[in-house]
From TrEMBL:
The chain crosses the membrane at residues 7-28, 40-58, 70-93, 113-139, 151-177. This is Conserved membrane protein. GO terms for molecular function: protein-disulfide reductase activity. Pfam families: DsbB. It comes from Blastopirellula marina DSM 3645. Its main location: membrane.
Length: 196
């Protein structure tokens, strides 16, 4: 196997999570479906999953990528995926009994929280495989940290900032998100929209 493959798999992992989160934004703003607190926790868990792969990329930037650094990155992803899977499962179980239609409209036949569980299971499998083959995927030679790596890390940073802004707009100056959100509280707190 190519000894730098682990470095490029980490890029792929980050990009895929960013695409999933951008898809969640398209549903949120395109379909006008404001995410509930469990949805936001699932997004945070996905960002933490990608953080493990981003850690691998950033560690490789300074030189050779060692097996302990590689394992630490994917260990972070596994812990985040387990937490995210638990949150997704909780939301699935809240809406599993008929005639509950579920929260939000289905996408390709499944609700977003069900897709989130699929993403977390895939992250668990991917991280486990990366750890199993770490000896074949990691090189002791310096890895090039070029424009592709900078672009992937920049995209990930932008997705994190967008999610932070989304939560702030949704919660406003309140400590908690509403269980069944119907509006972006920040705009009402600032008086941009009339509360009536």
């Amino acid at each position: 196997m190519n000894k730098q493959l682990g470095f490029w798999i980490a890029h792929f992992n980050v990009v895929v999570v960013c695409i999933v989160l951008l898809g969640a934004f398209s549903v949120q703003f395109g379909e006008q479906e404001i995410p509930c607190p469990l949805c936001m926790l699932q997004r945070m868990a996905m960002m933490l999953c990608a953080m493990g792969s981003a850690y691998v990329i950033l560690q490789a930037r300074s030189g050779a990528l060692s097996i302990p650094e590689f394992a630490a990155g994917y260990g972070m992803s596994i812990l985040a995926a387990v937490c995210g899977a638990a949150i997704s499962t909780r939301q699935i179980l809240l809406h599993i009994v008929p005639p509950d239609p579920g929260y939000g409209d289905p996408v390709f036949g499944l609700h977003l929280y069900t897709w989130a569980l699929v993403v977390f299971v895939v992250v668990l499998i991917d991280s486990g495989l990366n750890l199993m083959f770490a000896g074949s995927l990691v090189t002791d030679q310096p890895v090039k940290f070029g424009s592709v790596s900078k672009g992937v890390i920049g995209l990930f940073g932008a997705v994190i900032v967008a999610n932070l802004l989304c939560v702030f707009c949704q919660a406003g100056f309140h400590w908690i998100l509403p269980d069944d959100p119907a509006r972006y509280e920040l705009f009402y707190d600032l008086g941009i929209f009339n509360a009536n």
